[in-house]
Amino acid sequence: MTTDTPAVTVGVDFGTLSGRALVLDVEDGRELGSAVHEYTHAVVDRTLPGGGLKLPADWALQIPQDWRDVLRFAVPSALADAGVRSSQVIGIATDFTACTVLPTTWDGTPLCELPRFAARPHAYPKLWRHHAAQPEADLIVRRAEESGQRWLARYGGKISSEWQHAKALQVLLEDSEVYAASDRWIEAADWIVWQLTGEETRNPCTAGYKGVYQDDAYPDAAFLASLHPDFADFTAKIEHPLSSLGSPAGKLSPAAAELTGLRAGTVVAVGNVDAHVTSAAARALDPGHMLAIMGTSTCHVMNSDVLAEVPGMCGVVRDGIVPGLWGYEAGQSGVGDILAWAVRTAAPHEYAVEARRRGISVHELLSEKAAAQPVGGHGLLALDWHSGNRSVLVDHHLSGLIVGLTLDTRPEDIYRALVEATAYGTRTIIETFEQAGVPVTEFTAAGGLLKNTFLMQTYCDILNRPVNVLAAEQGPALGAAIHAAVAAGAYTDIRAASAAMGRLERHAYTPDPARAAAYDPVYAEYRALHDHFGRGGSDVMHRLRALRTDTSTTTPPASNC
After folding, report:
1. 471 CB contacts (<8 Å, ≥6 apart)?
2. Is pLDDT larger for residue 551 or for residue 40?
3. Neighbours of 491 (CB within 10 A)
């Protein structure tokens, strides 16, 4: 290629509400064009499409056609925005939310697209934030403890309700016909690659972190049978040779070429997870360099040359982020979602009026007012569990809490307390790593919340360490495009591609010593509340959730007959 026609790659990031495509110059990672496609159905958490069956609490489904539409609309639009021809594209890669999983037939057809299963909720993809499988997750942990399963320690001693086995077991227990009809049970990260190449592949990231794949094996049939006799065959639904991250999954099929506007035969990279692929975008691949992808939720990922048992982690996987290192994952189930809740529920009408008059968002107005307060000035302390706790307690039946409310409490007080609570949650995760012997030497942030400078400085002060930031708006798509360059042979490995194409601003935020010192005693109070409500001091949150569940809709029936 000449400099007038640079070689490019396409990265496609499938998020919770939309998908985005990014076109990058392979030589230096320069962004040439991008496009976003909003999912038509967004998150299906109330009723099935078309006014169908009402869903119970904690359900979250998606529609596969929404994902195909990202390929149909966003990819051609990004190419047009970049002003490049399909002949310049040497590779395409995708990333997905994890664990978003779906049951399919042998050829990859989602069961929800078959007429006989269209009204069956369990035939639909379960989004990562589908938390209705907590009883199944609890059962998996109990049986693993009873039988001494060695892999349990790799996940901090607990299995999440978000993960493959818990969600699949829920399908078996609540709609055995759908379970029996599911020839394949697959992560959306691998399913979308199947749509592009026409061939099934599996990646080690989702297999390790969400599929309990450790030491070259899934849990054995005897263990699965201890959960339910009919679950003994589950591994057959997910088992497939794993392909290394950054390697080719195959070539773009003629059907996918027509869908995307790319050339048939274009290299397609192995699938990946949105958070983990962002490590390459942020040049956060060295041992000890933690990356926090901060959006509706936050995922913390980090490579290490140390293998340790870290309580409450979402997993440690060999080659899970880059080949040759142990990749750790932790996370917070709600961050941006919690702040959005505060705007919806705690900000009165006059705040919206003021924000509109000044041409800013209510988030910006609340952040501005909150930033004017001293540490502890609002007299509040919150627990950031509105969507449950992923790390380090791994309990999605916990709930949010605000202590210290008075008749003088203002919306900005609540907003600031919630921002601080999410930062305390991240500090808890970092300290848990270090107490387990896995040092965190550097901290980088990425994601949509980087736009909130008050929030970022608060994190910096509470963590009391410099915070780097990803110098790109679309980190996952950038990371995917970097992986596409490796798969296409433009770089020898992910590290080399990251060094050339990644974007990182070091020490974008530095801690204020006075604020950092003032936060320490408040953080100690957070940890006291955290342990009291999260480690057995009081089970009131579970009892209240059970009461709510008992008085809400029941589990969907197995059929609509």
Report:
1. 503, 504, 505
2. 40
3. 20
